[in-house]
């Protein structure tokens, strides 16, 4: 004979459910308000209003995606770190421009793009790299880029990405780090959602071709 | 229905790698309009999923350090400039400007309208003239027949800040010679504030012997007691020896003498 638990009457079960829902209602509300207060926009508004420490939370949230974006663009870890730092410097400097109406992530990537373009311009003026230098750098960095990829397929894809023109690489990286939210990417780039889709289409089309080429040579 | 079939046909052709540039352009248009989803194109979903899977190394710790250094520097800077921020606030600027302009205008008006130093001298002179006039009036009133006028004259000295020797002399004269007791008492009262002056005090002591009225004698005795004037004792003793002095007055004088 096994000891079975006592059978609950319907009334008991009903009361238990009511009490549970009463108990849960408040914490659920509390948690959702708490989460709202921790949303990117709410945090950035706090930063704007002078609570500068709050930027630490946003930094912790976005340092990696931003680093990934820059690293994907230039394959230079040290430079990418500098650029991430630069993005947060600009966020601090222009914090009063954040109105909280748009999406923080969109605004941040908009700044990141500007930082990247400014750096690219500066780089171009400073070094005036020859194609050979560039290729040499790309070649050595390719090794660094691929060392993280366990899968051979991903290594090949990573190399294919590096061979894409900058604008195409950028759109694919934005798509990756902005979770394929084409409308938001459009806000970052200043174009329509449809135009972003076309850009992604062209980038993927070229990526596919480069990838196939690499695969063939391998 | 027709369009769906057309889209399907285009996609099939594209996926087979047989689409010409015109057809690719058409597919782009359909992608832009949202009629073809990117994931519907062969290999695209796999590719974009793989892009997401590409791992990137984590940024080094020095990035965190640099960030926190920058944040601390910015915090220090913003605390320092918080006062400056208050004054550079957009709302406050017009108010401050308005307040400053009002203040400057007020100062300018005040400077233009202010009384020059000369006027102050004139006021002092005017005050002196009024006081001279009062003195003259008092002296002339003291000459009057009516006791009321003479009382008025004596009371006029009370409104004066500083009196000349003419005035104190006239008051002592009144104290010693006026026929009316009330006028004499009023003169004594008027002289009270100047009794610290040695000459006046002496004149008051000499006045004791001249007084016939017991009321004035008592008032003088009280004043002497108040002033602790020992020179007055001889004069009072003379009064005490005088047989005509009423006993009540003698008693009062004795009390005052004891105080001295």
Structure characterization notes:
The complex is a heterodimer of chains A (218) and B (260). Chain A is mainly alpha-helical. Chain A has helices at 10-37, 40-48, 55-74, 77-93, 104-127, 131-146, 152-162, 166-177, 182-189, 193-217. In chain A, helix 3 runs antiparallel to helix 8, helix 5 (104-127) packs across helix 9 and helix 9 packs across helix 10 (193-217). Residues 1-10 and 141-147 of chain A have low confidence and may be disordered. Chain B is mostly helical. The model of chain B has no long low-confidence stretch (mean pLDDT 83). Helix content of chain B is 75%, strand content 0%. In chain B, helix 1 (2-15) crosses helix 2 (21-33), helix 8 runs parallel beside helix 10 (181-191) and helix 12 packs parallel to helix 14. Chains A and B meet through helix 3, helix 4, helix 7, helix 8 and helix 10 of A and helix 2, helix 3 and helix 4 of B.
């Amino acid at each position: 004979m096994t000891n079975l638990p006592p059978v609950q009457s319907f009334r008991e079960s009903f009361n238990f459910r009511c009490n549970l829902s009463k108990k849960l209602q408040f914490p659920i509300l509390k948690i959702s308000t708490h989460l709202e207060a921790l949303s990117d926009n709410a945090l950035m508004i706090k930063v704007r209003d002078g609570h500068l420490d709050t930027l630490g939370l946003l930094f912790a949230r976005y340092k990696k995606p931003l680093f990934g974006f820059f690293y994907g663009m230039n394959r230079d870890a040290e430079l990418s770190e500098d650029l991430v730092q630069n993005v947060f410097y600009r966020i601090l400097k222009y914090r009063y421009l954040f109105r909280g109406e748009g999406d923080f992530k969109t605004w941040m990537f908009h700044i990141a793009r500007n930082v990247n373009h400014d750096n690219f311009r500066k780089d171009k003026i400073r070094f005036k790299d020859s194609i050979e230098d560039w290729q040499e750098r790309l070649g050595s960095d390719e090794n660094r880029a691929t060392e993280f990829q366990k899968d051979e397929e991903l290594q090949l894809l990573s190399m294919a990405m590096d061979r894409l023109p900058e604008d195409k690489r950028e759109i694919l990286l934005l798509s990756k780090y902005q979770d394929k939210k084409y409308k938001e990417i459009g806000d970052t780039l200043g174009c329509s959602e449809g135009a972003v889709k076309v850009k992604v289409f062209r980038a993927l089309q070229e990526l596919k071709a480069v990838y196939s080429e690499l695969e063939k040579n391998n | 229905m027709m369009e769906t079939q057309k889209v399907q046909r285009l996609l099939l052709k594209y996926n087979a790698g047989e689409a010409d540039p015109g057809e690719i352009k058409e597919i782009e248009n359909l992608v832009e309009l949202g009629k073809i989803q990117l994931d519907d194109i062969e290999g695209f979903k796999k590719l974009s999923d793989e892009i997401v899977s590409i791992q990137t190394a984590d940024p080094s710790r020095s990035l965190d350090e640099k960030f926190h250094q920058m944040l601390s520097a910015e915090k220090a800077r913003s605390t320092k400039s918080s006062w400056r921020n208050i004054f550079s606030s957009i709302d406050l600027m017009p108010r401050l400007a308005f307040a400053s302009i009002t203040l400057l205008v007020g100062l300018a008006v005040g400077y233009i309208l202010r009384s020059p130093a000369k006027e102050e001298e004139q006021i002092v002179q005017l005050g002196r003239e009024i006081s001279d006039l009062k003195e003259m009036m008092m002296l002339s009133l003291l000459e009057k027949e009516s006791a009321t006028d003479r009382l008025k004259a004596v009371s006029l000295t009370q409104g004066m800040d500083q009196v000349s020797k003419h005035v104190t002399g006239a008051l002592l004269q009144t104290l010693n010679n006026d026929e009316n007791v009330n006028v004499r008492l009023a003169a004594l009262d008027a002289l009270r504030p100047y009794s610290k002056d040695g000459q006046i005090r002496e004149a008051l002591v000499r006045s004791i012997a001249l007084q016939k009225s017991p009321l004035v004698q008592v008032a003088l005795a009280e004043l002497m007691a108040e002033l602790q004037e020992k020179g007055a004792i001889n004069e009072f003793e003379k009064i005490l020896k005088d047989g005509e002095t009423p006993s009540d007055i003698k008693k009062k004088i004795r009390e005052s003498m004891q105080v001295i």
